[in-house]
Specification:
alpha/beta, eight-stranded parallel barrel
């Protein structure tokens, strides 16, 4: 017997390339590119179509969707072109199905999620009509009923390729559909009627794979897939919401999970509700993280309370907001940081609008805030060294959180200090809409993210100078979403979810009332964006592939145009001894130049109250491939740049050399005189120019001088276009019908330039 067993084992090993145990792959299958979607032991990678765990455990190495808790069990990944292979057996009287191209998972009103997919029917019948096994349900009847009786295993292969779906059951090709021929709702190509109120030529050619629960047990195993799509990176989008202004314990509301599913949110910016009792804070953190685990949501803990409160003292008499050396910023105690570190769904800690707090010394939110420095106290330093000193200070704060494994983020309301935070290891996100020229703010944040290898976070914010709230129109919001998405944001979240200004009954994305919520027109725009626009326009590039045409290189000095805003005060880095100067303000005039005068020479923020007083807000300003780097940028980020501006206080020797190489290869550099290489400055003087290799140096003390305007003309964009290139993809935003708050997007992909 032992000898026989050994021989049998040898046979099985020798046959290993063609035979596989249940729910495994053979070597041949692996070599052919098959992947295993179900391991027979766990439901890893599977959930219900309601995005919840299944209520039905694995049965004998099989998935049984019956009573799972949703309309179907789905694999968590979306697929477009593929071959799906699996085995199934039915119970007596079974009614089930296999769904492909199911998208989105949120049902339309009055419909189940099955209307969002295409079903291959599984039924305990002997006929071959539109609802029998192998049918493409209610659309195409099978050529024959090739299914085996209940209790016996069937093998099915479903191929989705281009516009076609083909079904092979137990070796027989039983049905096929070309959805491009299905041009009318409720009508087959031959004119006969079916139940679905959509034209299937417009159905998404991608989506989830689902195993239906339609009231009967049905068992599935050996679920394998081979992709037919050439591996092509589609850059994902973390999509979320900031719930500032929403009542505390939002996550405890019975409709909270439903709301997140309805809007497709997988990311949550949650403002900390500090409590004097440490145990109460820990309880809150655990409850939030548990809710996020259950609902597959990632969250960040937003710290903004210190921006508008003088102090916060806990039960142990510890002041969370004030440091012994006089600085004012929130620092959570060790017990809280340790608890945050234990969270499973927490991404990190976000310090909200802190570039603002640094510049205004925490002194503008209300009368209860101190007039004290934020993390960096500039007293005793020079403005020339402030950027490095500030970077060091925020770097120390990051190191403290590194000890707990917590990442740090910021959210900026002014277009400054992005590069300092990024150099210190933070991700510095930008707000758009609000009081901001959104394209210019994105160019600043994107440059910092590219230069220092961080993510790009973008936040449309409904606040602004207009009367009331939301201070921006639905069209402005829609355009901001398109702008952020196609400029390559890794994370895109909206502020705010449900804030209802002065209880006027307008809300934000939703209006909370009667123990539930109502979706506003802004909310409808958000749902359209994530459920319709994004799936139809998958992003096959990242901002990291930017091929800039114009680079602004500037040492950070915290100047955004505050000299015209008496309320906020003109103190760079929060130092009364450092008002704005012609040098620090020089870069503001570059924006005026590059946008054909649309952005004021006072700067890209509506907080510059000179020429912006009384001027209506607008999203659009023309730009052509503009990005902002700091004075330390390396040559690798300047490759291919055609026009370089050198502005601000200083520049490193290495960056100056990198710019010189660009000029020699054909770039034009327009620079303040003190930033030019010495030999070039001697040749140009303050307002001259000189050729160098294939390029040219242009010196100026005023970026709006006539000789600069003349030189820059070939680099200016169309009056109605924002144009950027990412790898081989050209992205152009254009205004619709002359309205600067209504944008559409043109995407063109060219052959590789490599």
């Amino acid at each position: 017997m032992k000898r026989f067993v050994a021989t049998l084992a040898s046979v099985l090993i020798a046959a290993g390339n063609t035979w596989a145990a249940e729910n495994t792959l053979t070597q041949d299958e692996k070599a052919a590119g098959w992947i295993l979607l179900f391991d027979g032991e766990t439901l890893n990678g599977w959930m219900t179509s309601s995005r919840t765990p299944s209520n039905t455990p694995i049965e004998g190495g099989c998935i049984n969707p019956h009573k799972c808790g949703g309309y179907m069990m789905i694999h968590e990944k979306e697929w477009s072109g593929f071959v799906l292979s699996l085995d199934f057996k039915i119970s007596i009287g079974c009614n089930s199905g296999i769904f492909v191209w199911t998208y989105p998972l949120e049902p339309r009103p009055g419909k189940d999620v099955g209307y969002n997919g295409i079903e291959i029917a599984i039924d305990d019948t002997k006929t071959s009509s539109y609802h029998d096994t192998g049918a493409i349900y209610d659309l195409v009847a099978p050529k024959k009923n090739a299914m085996k009786p209940p209790g016996e295993w069937n093998h099915i292969e479903i191929t989705c390729k281009g516009s076609r779906i083909k079904v092979v059951l137990n070796g027989d090709e039983v049905s096929e559909i070309d959805v491009d021929q299905w041009e009318k709702p409720n009508k087959r190509p031959d004119g006969s009627e079916h139940k679905f109120d959509i034209a299937f030529k417009d159905h998404p050619r991608h989506g989830y794979i689902g195993l239906q629960d339609h009231g009967s047990p049905c068992w599935f195993k050996n679920i394998k897939l081979r992709s037919l799509v050439k591996e092509e990176k589609i850059w994902p989008l973390r999509w979320g919401i900031d719930t500032l202004g929403t009542p505390e314990n939002f996550e405890l509301q019975p409709w909270a999970a439903e709301l997140f599913r309805e809007f497709g949110y997988n990311f949550w910016v949650l403002h900390a509700w500090e409590k004097p009792q440490i145990a109460a804070n820990i309880k809150w953190i655990r409850e939030v993280d548990a809710w996020c685990r259950e609902n597959r949501v990632t969250w960040v803990c937003d710290l903004e309370s210190a921006n508008c409160q003088k102090t916060f003292v806990d039960e142990h008499r510890r002041d969370w907001f004030n440091r012994p050396d006089g600085r004012h910023f929130e620092l959570l105690p060790d017990e809280i940081l340790e608890e945050l570190a234990r969270c499973q769904r927490l991404d990190g800690v976000l310090y909200d609008e802190v570039e603002h707090m640094q510049n205004c010394r925490n002194g503008v939110m209300n009368n209860d805030t101190p007039f004290a420095p934020w993390v960096y106290d500039p007293k005793g330093d020079t403005l020339e060294e402030a950027a490095d000193k500030f970077t060091s200070a925020v770097g120390e704060l990051r190191k403290l959180h590194d000890h707990y494994g917590l990442r740090l983020y910021t959210e900026h309301v002014f277009p400054v200090l992005f590069h300092c935070f990024a150099r210190a290891g933070w991700t510095a996100g930008t707000k758009i809409l609000k009081e901001n020229w959104s394209p210019a703010f994105i160019a600043c944040a994107m440059g910092a993210a590219i230069e220092y290898g961080t993510e790009l976070w973008i936040t449309p914010d409904f606040s602004g100078y207009a009367e009331g709230y939301p201070a921006h129109s639905v069209e402005e919001y829609r355009s901001a979403l398109l702008l952020a998405y196609h400029m390559g944001a890794d994370t895109l979240y909206t502020e705010n979810l449900a804030y209802d200004f002065e209880n006027r009954g307008k809300g934000s994305l939703v209006l909370l009332k009667d123990g539930g919520y109502t979706v506003t027109d802004y909310g409808k725009a958000a749902k359209w964006f994530i459920h319709e626009y994004v799936p139809a326009h998958p992003r096959r590039y990242t901002f990291r592939q930017l091929r800039p045409r114009v680079a602004i290189i500037r040492q950070e000095d915290a100047c955004w145009g505050q000299a015209t805003n008496l309320a906020l005060g003109d103190r760079l880095f929060g130092n009364d001894a450092w008002p704005s100067t012609l040098v620090t303000e020089a870069w503001l005039r570059i924006w005026h130049l590059l946008t054909r005068g649309v952005i004021s020479a006072e700067g890209p923020s509506w907080h510059s109250r000179g020429t912006y007083s009384g001027r209506p807000y607008q999203v659009f300003c023309p730009l052509d491939g503009v990005v902002v780097f700091d004075e330390k940028v390396s040559g690798e980020h300047l490759k291919g740049v055609e026009l370089i501006f050198l502005t601000g206080l200083g520049i490193t020797e290495n960056t100056q050399k990198a710019v010189a190489e660009c000029v020699a290869e054909g770039a034009m550099c327009i620079s303040l005189p003190h930033l030019l290489p010495e030999k070039v400055r001697q040749a140009t003087g303050e307002m001259g120019e000189i050729a160098d290799g294939k390029g040219v140096w242009v010196a100026t003390t005023d970026f709006l001088a006539p000789h600069v305007r003349k030189r820059v003309m070939p680099f200016l964009p169309d009056f109605n276009a924002i144009r950027y290139t990412f790898g081989d993809t050209n992205v152009v935003f254009r205004v619709i019908d002359g309205d600067p708050n209504r944008l559409n997007v043109e995407i063109t992909v060219h052959k590789s330039h490599s």
